[in-house]
Amino acid sequence: MNSKKIKFTLVEVAIAIGILALGIAAAMGIIGAAKQRMSKAESQWRRQHALTQAAEFLLLAPPDTMLPRAIFDYPEFTATINTSLPENLPDNVPSNTVGWQLSALHINLIDKTGKQVDSIVIDRLLHGGK
After folding, report:
1. pTM of whole model > 0.90?
2. Cα-Cα end-to-end distance for the chain
């Protein structure tokens, strides 16, 4: 039996290494972009979750209640609330009836730098117009 050895030229080896390097570079680019998108999505989810948690507490709490840190466990955020009259009510709809006031709660999520990063407006009935 006569076995033949397969030999590759230097050019063929260089081309194979180049193709392999391009494949690795493309895969690293895709992985880097995916990590960046995941990080951005996690940050958006965290902001939205913090805002939702603040809104849930403030909807159940009496007016002018401060958000306790024991419930709002987001050290990178604070939440502020402002109350105003609701906008765009039809003319035949009163905003105040027998001790109840329809109010718009403006809940703002503030980061450590003092920048507002998210907000929500919720209409709520308040007793006594508070």
Report:
1. no
2. 100
